[in-house]
Design a protein that fits this description.
By secondary structure, the chain is mainly β. The protein has one helix and 23 strands. The strands form four sheets. Strands 1, 2, 5, 6, 8, 9, 10, 11 and 15 form a nine-stranded antiparallel beta sheet that branches. Strands 3-4-16-7-12-13-14 form a seven-stranded antiparallel beta sheet, with no helix packed on it. The chain has a four-stranded mixed beta sheet with strand order 17-23-22-19, with no helix packed on it. A hairpin with a 7-residue loop joins β20 and β21. The longest helix has 5 residues. It is elongated.
């Protein structure tokens, strides 16, 4: 099973993960811990604060959608405080304030999508569970919402997506299939100081009221790239076939072989290319549906052919035959053997070793 110690492996999925590599990680801090392939942001106890950040930045100059599952626990009437999806241009280790700050309050240079399960009157919260967008670590600097939501603290996983289109500066937040927040806002200039790169992740916290908060980023299957076992070339310029057949296959997959020190004769976009020189060959497998790719390499070594015959014993006068031993000669796929002599001697096993 995929795991993280102390990071969560993440795979990209379709255009929703178009900016993420296939096997990357979330960096955890505070009370954030692993729970299977999800991140437990807080336990159901007081004074918790967890943060989890993807270790590479997202580029807001490109369109993207991030999708995740959020769970807010089962403590409804006395449960708190919620989960925030945060984009910020500071670092992948920062955390804000706990309790009503939901781990995001006080994080500068930030775009915060807040899912709040507790009413904090100082921030103008409604009584019900609600969502809002706050910027630059200030929960009183709200650009959208708050909007009242059905009960989130029902033990269920809630599907959340955030989409961004830089062509129109449009954002959209979807909860369980319904758009709950959307608008036009220049995030790059108003939150990130004019540069487009930002870390993204999650924050959550509890105060005197508690709940178990869980985040599950989507984890599509990894792309399998297998370049096969080490191969040997015995004759310079004589082609051999590499074997990538253990890689993922299907209409969604494409293949590309490359080398810096060898030579590909044919089939560089297939699983079985022909090569005719020693070197390191790399196979890259790309999934056009998930937009994931993975690579694997194989070494091709040069080993010249050699023939060696062990010194034979004396001719057996009883049978008139002797067995010659050529087993120390080169062996392997594609190698054949032929014995010959200038004398009139019979070789009953001409194509074998020994005759």
């Amino acid at each position: 099973m995929r795991y993280i110690l102390p990071v969560l492996l993440l795979a990209t999925y379709s255009s929703v993960w178009a900016q993420l590599t296939c096997e990357d990680e979330f960096l955890l801090s505070g009370t954030a811990t692993l729970l299977g392939e999800c991140i437990q942001m807080t336990a159901n106890t007081t004074g918790q604060q967890g943060c989890a950040w993807f270790h590479e930045e997202t580029d807001f100059s490109q369109p993207f959608t991030h999708v995740m599952q959020l769970s807010f626990g089962t403590n409804d009437a006395g449960g708190a405080d919620g989960i925030c999806l945060v984009y910020q241009s500071n670092s992948n280790t920062i955390c804000g304030l706990q309790g009503g700050g939901i781990g995001a309050l006080g994080i500068p240079n930030s775009f915060i999508i807040e899912f709040d399960t507790w009413q904090n009157s100082e921030y103008g919260d409604p009584v019900s569970d609600h969502a809002a967008i706050n910027i630059n670590g200030n929960f009183n600097n709200t650009i959208d919402g708050p909007v009242s939501l059905p009960n989130l603290e029902n033990g269920n996983q809630h599907t959340v997506s955030f989409s961004w289109d830089p062509a129109t500066n449009t954002y959209t937040v979807v909860l369980n299939g319904s758009v709950i927040l959307s608008g036009v806002f220049d995030i790059i200039n108003n939150c990130f100081g004019g540069q487009p790169l930002a870390f993204w992740g999650y924050t959550a916290s509890t105060g005197a009221a508690t709940n178990l908060h869980l985040v599950c980023p989507g984890l599509p299957p990894f792309v399998v790239a297998d370049a096969g076992p080490t191969q040997v070339i015995h004759c310079e310029g004589s082609p051999i076939t590499l074997d990538g057949s253990s890689s993922d296959t299907g209409s969604e997959f494409s293949y590309q072989w490359s080398t810096l020190d060898g030579n590909i004769v044919a089939g560089d976009d297939t699983l079985m290319p022909e090569v005719d020189a020693p070197g390191t060959y790399t196979l890259t497998v790309y999934n056009s549906v998930t937009m994931c790719e993975s690579s694997a390499s194989v070494n091709v070594e040069f080993e010249p052919l050699y023939a060696e015959i062990e010194s034979p014993p004396f001719l057996d006068c009883t049978t008139g035959e002797v067995t010659l031993d050529g087993t120390l000669s080169s062996s392997g796929n594609g190698i054949t053997y032929e014995w010959s002599t200038s004398m009139a001697i019979s070789f009953p096993h001409q194509a074998t070793m020994p005759p």
